Amino acid sequence: MRNRGLQAKLRQISKKLSDIMEHDSDEKVMVFTDNRALQELCAQINSLLLDRQKIKADYRKKEISYKKMLSNISHDIKTPLTVILGYLEMMRLADAENEELRKVEAKAGQVMELIDRFFTLAKLEAGDMDIEIGTINVSELCRESMLGYYDILQGKDFTVELSIPEKDIFAQGEARALDRILNNLISNAVRYGGDGNYIGLVLRESGAYVYIDITDRGRGIGKEFARNVFDRLYTLEDSRNREIQGNGLGLTIAKNLALQLGGDILLESEPCVKTTFTVKLKKAAG
Predict the structure, then answer these.
(1) What is the CATH number assigned to the segment(s) 134-282?
(2) Could you read off the pLDDT of 49-106 as tens digits, one per residue?
(3) Within 10 Å of residue 110's Cβ, how many Cβ atoms?
(4) Is the CB of residue 169 less than 8 Å from the CB of residue 138?
(5) Whether the Cβ atoms of residue 86 and residue 108 lie closer than 8 Å to each other
C-alpha cells in the first residue's frame, strides 16, 4: 500500500512538471505528503524552476535591450547615409554621363534600403511601431498594390491573374502595414518566382477571416526550407535560386506585421508547380 501511494505521488509530480514545461508557466510543484524524501524532492524541483524563471526573465530583458539598441543603431546609420545619398544625387545631376557615380549611388541606395528594413524590423520586435488597428478596405489595397507593379510585370512579360470580388471586403488591420506586407510578398514573387512568368492574387473570405493568396509558378520552396523562410536573415537563394541574392528581411517583416495585425502569413509550395503565400486577417465586425 505504501509503495502504491508513493508511486501515485511521483506520477502526480511528473504530470505537474510536464504541464509546467508544456505551457511554459511559472507554477511550482505542490504535493501534500508526510514523506520527507518527497518533500525534499519537491523543494529541489521548485528551486530549479525558480532558477529557470529568473533565467527567462533575464533573457527577456536582454532581448528587449538588444532590440532597442539595434533600432537606435539603425537610426544613427540611416541619418548620415541620407546626407550621403543627397550629395551623390547632386553630383550625378552635375555629371549625368558618369557611369561609376551612377553605380555608387545605386549601391548606396541598396544599403539605405537594407538599413531601412533593419530599422523597421528592430522597431517591430522592440514594440516601438505605432500600428492602430481599424477597419480597412482589403479589396482596394490589393488592387493598388498590384497596380504599383504593373510596369515591372509587363516588362517581364508576366501573366497576371486577379480574383477580387466585386463587393468590397473589409478586415481588421492598418492600411500602411497591409500595403507593406503585400509589397513584400509581390516583390518576393517577382524576384524569386520570375522563371514561371506568372503571378496571381486571390482575395477571399472564409468564416471569421479574410485571405489574400499571392501565387507564383517559379522553382518553389522545398519542405526542408519552408519552415525557415520567415526567419530573420534567412535568404531564399538556397531554397529557390542560388544565383539570386536577398537580404532575408522582407518576409520576416511581413510576418511580424501580420502577427501584429492579429493575423498571420501561411506558406504552401509545390516545387516547380506553384508557391502561395497567404495573408490571413480577421474579418471586420459588422
Answers:
(1) 3.30.565.10
(2) 888 888 888 887 777 777 777 667 766 777 788 888 888 888 888 888 888 888 888 8
(3) 11
(4) yes
(5) no
C-alpha closest to that of 121 among 214, 247, 228, 221:
247
Domain boundaries, the chain: 1-129, 134-282
For the domain covering 1-129, report its CATH number: 1.10.287.130
Question: What burial class does residue 215 get, using C-beta atoms within 10 Å of its C-beta: 0-12 exposed, 13-18 middle, 19+ buried?
Answer: buried
User: pLDDT, tens digit, for every residue of 134-149?
Assistant: 999 999 999 999 999 9
Q: Say if strands 209-216 and 198-206 run parallel, antiparallel, or are unpaired.
A: antiparallel
> Around 205, how many Cα atoms within 13 Å sit in the side-chain half-sphere?
15
Q: CB-hemisphere CA count at 13 Å for 239?
A: 23
Strand ranges inside the chain, DSSP E: 134-137, 159-163, 170-173, 198-206, 209-216, 264-270, 274-282
The torsion angle over the Cα atoms of residues 283, 182, 141 and 269, rounded to 10 degrees, is -60
Query: Could you report the per-residue pLDDT of 235-247, keeping only the tens digit for each?
Result: 554 444 433 334 4
User: Grid coordinates 509503495 are at which residue?
Assistant: 3
The whole-model pTM stands at 0.65
Residue corresponding to grid cell 510578398: 185
Q: How far apart are CA 168 and CA 87, in angstroms?
A: 45
